[in-house]
Design goal:
about 0% strand, 22 helices, Proton glutamate symport protein, mainly alpha
């Protein structure tokens, strides 16, 4: 029997056992132990499948399923596993700043042609703004069609008013000032990716203006640092299945699967909007740019899975950069486009903010005309920029927007009940959208699959 046939049989058996376990649980309440045993047998079969593939991606998927099952079966135990996901996130966060700094400096100063860097920046910003605007429109249409907030009974959250008062509205000048670092060490410590990227760009421009004698040692240092950080990523990724599984176990154990029933309409509207954005926006963009679809899906799967399970864009950033370089996007483009996209190309976050803002108004019984909604969307174009790549940070933006338009806070605290589940989807879309952006810009620059892949990156993708 061939390897593909064996793997299909394993997947089929796992699906059958898992389905049987779910059916028995709901049909015969007295057979809960048997149902649990069947589902864990299914997970064991999936583990055999992952062991045959000998790559990290299937193990991450198995860890997600096992974590969700553990959170459902033993929630009291599962919530204590968060420490392992926090360890994984801490390790990843140590990678991000030096990786972005080193790759950007090498990409810009080593390229030699600063005009091409400026051209690439203009193209990237144009692409980002078009895509995020479309995401806002799709979110706006989706929530107006579903009217998920209409008729919602709003409980008053204790301390809601005080929380809102602490969040100041975000203005365009605040955002512009926030882009530029005042202390690079503070920017690194606070995880401000865009500030690190801006510092790296100016550092690289200054470095490019020096003589080869002065520039050479710094360039070699940065080249070595980027290779070390990619190798560091490969090492940390061995811990990814444990971190991802623990994150899923905590989420399900803390919230329970029953949360889907309470605000299912909003959740369904959101995920249908995400699917619509992928099918009617990202897919046509990839086809127009002649990006190999199957190859791209394969390249982005691991980073997207990490983003979905951890709900943290930052956790997926190193692997996303590594995957896109292995896919054929030159490092100088990857190191510029993806970090910039983390502040300017948050497709999932902007789509969510459009939906959530109108949901708040609907739930509060406040009618907003299309003109008012469009003004709110224009505000979100600015306030959605620079959202930190950490779980639920977008809620701060939502609170600030509510303050700007004098919307009540209670519906926002209702959304908190399912925000973790929505955060998974929007974070995954953010990562996939930024990966596609790097491939599109590489095509636009005529540089796609024109440069050799680093041996360290190639090694990491084979693990």
């Amino acid at each position: 029997m061939s390897k593909p046939q064996t793997e299909r049989i394993l997947l089929g058996a796992a699906a059958l056992f898992f389905l049987l376990g779910c059916v028995i649980l709901h049909a015969q309440q007295g057979h809960a132990v048997a149902a649990i045993a069947l589902r864990w047998v299914a997970i064991g079969i999936l583990a055999v499948f992952a062991a045959r593939r000998r790559t990290l991606t299937p193990w991450i998927f198995v860890a997600m399923v096992a974590g969700a099952e553990l959170g459902f079966d033993a929630p009291a135990f599962a919530v204590n596993l968060r420490v392992f996901s926090d360890i994984f996130l801490r390790l990843i966060k140590t990678i991000v700043a030096p990786l972005i700094f080193a790759t950007l400096v090498v990409g810009i100063a080593g390229h030699g042609d600063l005009k091409s860097v400026g051209r690439m920046g203009i193209k990237s910003l144009f692409y980002f703004e078009v895509l995020t605007t479309i995401a806002l429109v799709i979110g706006l249409l989706a929530i107006n069609i579903s009217k998920a907030g209409v008729g919602l009974s709003i409980p008053v959250a204790a301390g809601a008013t005080e929380t809102l008062a602490k969040v100041a509205p975000t203005h365009w000048d605040d955002f512009l000032l926030h882009v530029f670092p005042e202390n690079i060490a503070k920017s690194v410590a606070d995880g401000q990716i865009l500030q690190v990227a801006v510092f790296a760009v100016f550092f690289a421009i200054a470095l490019a203006g020096l003589s080869e004698e002065k520039r050479g040692p710094v360039m070699r240092l940065c080249e070595s640092l980027s290779e070390v950080m990619f190798k560091f990523t490969n090492v940390v990724m061995y811990f990814a299945p444990i971190g991802v599984g623990a994150a899923m176990a905590f989420t399900v154990g803390h919230m329970g699967l029953g949360v889907l029933v309470n605000l299912g309409k909003l959740l369904m509207t959101f995920y249908l909007a995400l699917i619509a954005f992928v099918l009617f926006v990202l897919l046509p963009v990839a086809l127009l740019a002649r990006v190999p679809i199957l190859g791209f899906v394969k390249a982005v799967t691991e980073a997207a899975t990490i983003a979905f399970a951890t709900a943290t864009s930052e956790a997926a950033l190193p692997r996303a950069m590594e995957s896109m370089e292995a896919f054929g996007v030159p490092r100088r483009i990857v190191s510029f486009v993806i970090p910039a996209g983390y502040s300017f190309n948050l497709d999932g976050s902007t789509l969510y903010l459009a939906m959530a803002s109108i949901f708040v108004a609907q739930a509060a019984g406040i009618h907003m005309g299309w003109g008012q909604q469009l003004v709110m969307m224009g505000t979100l174009v600015l306030t959605s920029k620079g959202v930190a790549g950490v779980p639920r940070a977008v809620l701060v933006v939502l609170l600030a927007t509510a303050a700007t338009f004098r919307l009540p806070t209670e519906p926002i605290f209702v959304i908190l009940g399912i925000d973790a589940l929505m955060d998974m989807g929007r974070t995954m879309l953010n990562v996939v959208g930024n990966c596609l952006a790097s491939a599109v810009i590489a095509r636009w620059e005529g540089a796609f699959r024109t440069e050799p892949v680093s041996s360290v990156v190639h090694e990491g993708m084979l693990e």
